[in-house]
Amino acid sequence: MTAQDRTPAATGQAKERIAKYLSRHGVASRRAVEAMIADERITVNGEVIAHPATLVDDTDKIIVDGVPVGVKEPARLWLYHKPKNVMVSERDPEGRSTIYDTLPPKIPRVMPIGRLDYNTEGLLLLTNSGALKRHLELPSTGWLRRYRVRVQGVWRDEFSTALADGITVEGIKFGAIHAAREPRQKPGARQLWLDISLREGKNREVRRAMQHFELHVTRLIRVSYGPFQLGDLPEGGLREVNAKILGEQIGQILTQL
Predict the structure, then answer these.
(1) Residues contacting residue 210 through CB under 8 Å, at least 6 positions apart
(2) Cα-flanking dihedrals φ and ψ of residue 151, to 5°?
(3) 3-68 belongs to which homologous superfamily?
(4) Rounded distance between C-alpha atoms, residue 122 and residue 106, angstroms
(5) 232 in active site
(6) Nearest Cα to Cα of residue 75 among 25, 122, 114, 37
(7) Count of CA atoms in the C-beta half-sphere (13 A) of 213
(8) Same CATH fold, 145-225 and 77-140+228-256?
(9) Cα dihedral 40, 46, 51, 57 sign
(10) Where along the chain do its domains lie?
């Protein structure tokens, strides 16, 4: 029986699809694993696989890009200060720099939790666990994300009320966004800093919300994601979250990963 023949009927219920298996082991997201399969970068028991329905378990010898996949590691979390003009992706078809070009070479395979736009900087969470990634990205988790946002244009205090009530942009309803002018700034100034927080994180939500009020975002920095803070982490810096602190913040979910 070849790796391509490893279907549920042939292998039983103990096995799982390779994309899910590798995601749980922190190799990459399921979608990224499917792309790796298409690029013939994965072998199972010495055979290059060509189908994402391939089923595997811990008894199989799986190699990704020449590196064996071992026993599942405990979930880990890193804080990363993403620079501006860096893509949050493994590869970019336009040849732009990605976060993987800037990470230390000895870091394990990691996946981003959520995304930041190319022009956005600040806190990005990275993990080796596909299960932890999915849990923290669930809408039901609802962690607050805070941003410092520099805008050009005229800010009016009534914008705060409208954003908190929820606005509709190009037919898409945004959830509550809390926005306030940072202290010690002159009222009516045409360039100012705002403190913005939200829980949804739709595509380019902050920029689109500001554009709705004719405000142009010139800088966007994420300063926190749930209980985790950017703090004094330098641009391009990486810091692992202590296992004890991670357990305190994530709770019982860690025992289920």
Answers:
(1) 149, 151, 153, 216, 217
(2) -130, 155
(3) RNA-binding S4 domain (3.10.290.10)
(4) 22
(5) no
(6) 25
(7) 22
(8) yes
(9) negative
(10) 3-68, 77-140+228-256, 145-225
Q: How far apart are CA 237 and CA 232, in angstroms?
A: 10
CATH top-level class for 77-140+228-256? alpha beta
Identified catalytic residue from 117, 157, 165, 195: 117
At 60, list the tokens.
């199989």
Cα dihedral sign for 143, 85, 92, 36? negative
Q: In this structure, how many other beta carbons lie within 10 angstroms of the beta carbon of residue 29? A: 17
> Rounded to an integer, what is the distance from CA 56 to the centroid of its chain?
26
pLDDT tens by residue, 102-127 = 898 888 888 899 889 999 999 999 99
Which of these, 142, 143, 109, 138, lies nearest to 126 by C-alpha position?
109
pLDDT digits (tens, 9 = 90+) for 52-107: 889 998 889 999 988 888 656 788 999 999 999 999 988 888 999 999 998 988 88
103, amino acid identity: L
